[in-house]
Amino acid sequence: xxxxxxxxxxxxxxxxxxxxxxxxxxxxxxxxxxxxxxxxxxxxxxxxxxxxxxxxxxxxxxxxxxxxxxxxxxxxxxxxxxxxxxxxxxxxxxxxxxxxxxxxxxxxxxxxxxxxxxxxxxxxxxxxxxxxxxxxxxxxxxxxxxxxxxxxxxxxxxxxxxxxxxxxxxxxxxxxxxxxxxxxxxxxxxxxxxxxxxxxxxxxxxxxxxxxxxxxxxxxxxxxxxxxxxxxxxxxxxxxxxxxxxxxxxxxxxxxxxxxxxxxxxxxxxxxxxxxxxxxxxx
Length: 283
Known about the structure:
Elements: E1 6-12, H1 18-27, E2 31-34, H2 38-50, E3 56-60, H3 69-82, E4 84-91, H4 94-104, H5 117-134, E5 137-140, H6 146-157, E6 165-172, E7 183-186, H7 207-214, H8 217-240, E8 244-251, H9 257-270, E9 276-280
Parallel strand pairs: 1-3, 1-4, 2-3, 4-5, 6-8, 6-9, 7-8
Helix pairs in contact: 1-6, 2-3, 3-5, 4-5, 8-9
């Protein structure tokens, strides 16, 4: 029997979450294989095609196939021309990848060509740029821990695709707007608990700060309006078939007002959209 499998090629920076992603896809029923040299990918998929494995396949392709990398883009183009294929590219900020490597104490794939880890990370990004340009979906995992990344991937690729996976993220403008934000709401105009003596050292996760923020009349009006907006727009995203959506709530430092509002909005969205993740980037 011959069929046309659905192929997800997982690629991106080392330390950006490819292993977590592949394991999550495996849990979702994908046949997964990692670190397959690019020249063998086409033959591997052809075998699956010829033997009638009709379901879902995920293949990890990254800088570990360094010796073949000049040809990788051509292999990818050929695969996309033959089969239903999605290229998923994972990336993260340099300092986050650096920290992850220090925590795991594993060598970077470009070591010892680049003994300096930060040089290896940046060179890997340059080498992978052609693959990034071919990608159908780019996910920045800077703000995800492994659990959050698993839930995010599950929200995209799980069988029930009737609901988008929604991430609500609080952040501080001091450190910039999250790179993957689709909708951004600025709450810096609300009274700031940072300037209240008994609240400044707490966060939006603490009840005194939450009560202070939510008891402001401007906060009540803002929440009513954002709920009304979401009531209108979220069903549109669902109807469109949007796989995932990131809503960012920002205040000055990302520790008080944005955290409170993000929690309230997440709870509200979760009533009708089950796939909701809440991240407080700057806590």
